[in-house]
Amino acid sequence: MLQRAVASRVALVPTVFRFFIVVAILAGIAFAGVFALATLVEPQPREMTVTIPSSRLPSK
C-alpha cells in the first residue's frame, strides 16, 4: 500500500529534464518571435524633436 502511494506521488512530480525541455521550448518560441519582428517589421522613419531646457546648456 505504501509503495503504491509513493509510486503514484513520484509519477506526478515533474522531472528536471521535463522542466528544461519546457523552458527550452518557451525560449525557442520567444527567440522566433523576436527574430520575426526584427526581420519582417520595417520601422517607419519620422522626425523627432527634443526640447532641452536652457539650464542644461553650458553658459559662456
TrEMBL record:
Keyword field: Membrane, Transmembrane, Transmembrane helix
UniProt superkingdom: Bacteria
Bilayer-crossing regions: 20-41
Protein name: Histidine kinase
Species the sequence originates in: uncultured Microvirga sp
Lineage: Bacteria, Pseudomonadati, Pseudomonadota, Alphaproteobacteria, Hyphomicrobiales
